[in-house]
Amino acid sequence: MGKGDIYTLIAGFVIVLFVAVLVKPGGFSSVLPAPAPVAPTPLPATMTVSITPLPVNSSDALPVVSMATIRPDDPPYRIFYTSNPFTYPVVRLPDNMETFGASDILWRGENLVAFAFIEEPHGGVTQTFSVPYEIWMMNITVFAGSQPQYGRFRMALCNAKTGAILEGTEILNYGTIYKTVQFSDTPMYLIISTASIDKFRIEFETPRNIYDTERPK
């Protein structure tokens, strides 16, 4: 048999095979091995997510920070915001802050001592504190150099037991206001709201004669 006959025979076999596939596509499936089935991956019945609690501000471990513990002529104590504001009786400012009036008169001629302060760029609710002095002043200054026309600062001093507002104020744009307070040995906290300001600073001050009389010996 010549090479031409072999090529003719192979070509004829290929044609017959092609026609058979067209007529009955599954005809050769019986001679091919079936693919092995793939077992589905079982899903877990439950999933556990581990959550790590955030650390609590150590200052909140003290229910009340007493200014009476400040030693003679110590640097002013810095008051911080609490991380648990919703444990307080009131955390919202009243809608109408105008009822608290304008600035009180600065105690001119008095030698004032700053015994505490808070300075922040934004609002919040402070830790609870008490003041031993029978009369003291909040010297409040708002800085708004970026957008002074939109600056707004609101503050309320609250009784920590009842939520009653003891004193409050509002500063539009920027500036300084003085508020005289006559509550001593009372647990208190501040609610502060700000908008479009750079920062604020509140200094707690009392006359030197009162400071010297009531401070720890």
List keywords for this structure.
217 residues, alpha+beta, Jelly Rolls, 5-stranded mixed β-sheet, 11 strands, 30% strand, globular
Structure, explained:
There is one protein chain. The longest helix has 21 residues. With 217 residues, the chain is α+β, with helices and mostly antiparallel strands. The chain is globular, with a radius of gyration of 39 Å. The chain has a single domain, classed as Jelly Rolls (Sandwich), CATH 2.60.120. The chain has two helices and eleven strands. The chain has a five-stranded mixed sheet. A four-stranded antiparallel sheet has the order 4-10-7-8, with no helix packed on it. Strands 1-5 form a two-stranded parallel sheet. About 16% of the residues have low confidence.
